[in-house]
Amino acid sequence: MSEKPPQPFGTFQQWGERLNAYLQRVRDKLNWKEPLSRATENGMLLWDNGNEYPVVSLNDEWVPLHTGGATYSYGYFVDTTDQTCTTVDTATEVSWNTDVVSQNISIDGTDSTKINFAKTGTYSITFTAELYSSSSNTKTFYFWPKVNGTEYANTTMVVTLHSNGQAKTISRAAVFHMNAGDYLQAFWAVDDLDTKLDAVAATAFAPAAPSVTLSVIEVSNS
Fold first, then answer.
1. Are 163 and 136 in contact (CB under 8 A)?
2. What is the pLDDT of residues 39-69, one digit of tens each?
3. Beta-carbon-side half-sphere exposure of residue 189 (alpha carbons within 13 Å)
């Protein structure tokens, strides 16, 4: 609970000294968000001690202003190997082999195609892939997400390559609500097997490029 100001007992000078010391201690502190705190007026700033971040009132809700802390969730995952499909027009899981940095989000220990979420929240998720064509046939790539094995409408990316040796990077960002214990997967398919998700080796002047990347940032804890 927030510190309370000193009571007016003793002489005025003594109380004034205690009051001045109190103001010096608390002048930069936020009041704590209590169970009965109401966001009835926009712009009120409080400290949410349970979640370890400040919140601001907006349209009758407390909106997090994330600054870090043990409950803040994020992750950046990559795969450093080439990936291929074995059958045309068949859904194939994208796999991940490197957890670059993360908190409360992780690659599943027994299934490297799954990204596990330990905390309920709303997340901004960005997926990228390095596409490569090894023939002059026209070929089409398809990419889409699944949450707990379920597809979402209107989420597929479709890209076509036409030339031998042609390469292209694709990317898309979306917002997902995830519950604690949920998992996310990326799937892809092609109509021609002369394709791959290409992990590019490092050069003398640039680091390696992973075949796929996934960036996850928590934007709300509800």
1. yes
2. 888 877 888 877 777 877 877 887 776 655 5
3. 9
